[in-house]
């Protein structure tokens, strides 16, 4: 059984079919990429999976369970986490506090802290935070105010926050957007390490073809909401439809 599977997933915004009958699967342990031109429906697809958007039709299954109608908060508790852009960071709190809050929230539902929780549970939260800060190389900055981190570190903190719920599947929507070449290279290394060392399954939307072809095991290609290719990087690269969608027939 695949870890994640969509069947006929469709999202309409009025007359616009942003995601059109998309069926695809993500296998355990793989790095799965979604690519496509601007407006192809990549973010909408991801948002239908997290429950941020309600699909017009079709289903989403995670680990054999139907999660089509679950809210983003419930989705996190089933084991799917999305790395959001810097909006989810509390700038006046430390790196550690940001990650610990995310770990607590994942356990208890957003911000309904139970102050009667046993102390041993807090040490588990502390340990999870240590592990996730270490995974993104921010352990040395644990005490730093999050707002004062450089841009690339903030984006890695975002990833640590997403990891704090200890997901099986990590969703990333253009994690390198706005990064310098150095920050981009670090982030790509990080994504590779997360898959290898934490055994994470990753579903990533990314514009940079070089990155995609380097890290993806399989690639789903969308154009105008529809699947135009789905396969290994080699298979996708050879697809005429993909070449046309991207570059009007020029080879990738
Ligand atoms: N909330 C919304 N209301 C109406 N239309 C929307 C909404 N969100 C997205 N769309 C439209 O749906 C289509 C798909 O958008 P989406 O953001 O999923 O594309 P994308 O592949 O992520 O593009 P990009 O590469 O620019 O991030 C676009 O035509 C977009 O304008
Ligand atoms: Mg997008």
Automatic annotation (TrEMBL):
Job description of the protein: Probable component of a branched-chain amino-acid transport system.
GO molecular function annotations of the record: ATP binding
Matching Pfam families: ABC_tran (PF00005), BCA_ABC_TP_C (PF12399)
Sorted UniProt keywords: Amino-acid transport, ATP-binding, Nucleotide-binding, Transport
Transmembrane regions listed in the UniProt entry: none
CDD domains xref list: ABC_Mj1267_LivG_branched (cd03219)
InterPro entries, per the entry: AAA+_ATPase (IPR003593), ABC_AA/LPS_Transport (IPR051120), ABC_transporter-like_ATP-bd (IPR003439), BCA_ABC_TP_C (IPR032823), P-loop_NTPase (IPR027417)
PANTHER family on file: AMINO ACID ABC TRANSPORTER ATP-BINDING PROTEIN (PTHR45772:SF7), CONSERVED COMPONENT OF ABC TRANSPORTER FOR NATURAL AMINO ACIDS-RELATED (PTHR45772)
Annotated family: Belongs to the ABC transporter superfamily.
GO BP, one annotated term: amino acid transport
ABC transporter domain sequence ranges: 4-249
Name the UniProt record assigns to this protein: Probable branched-chain amino acid transport ATP-binding protein LivG
Keyword NAD listed: no
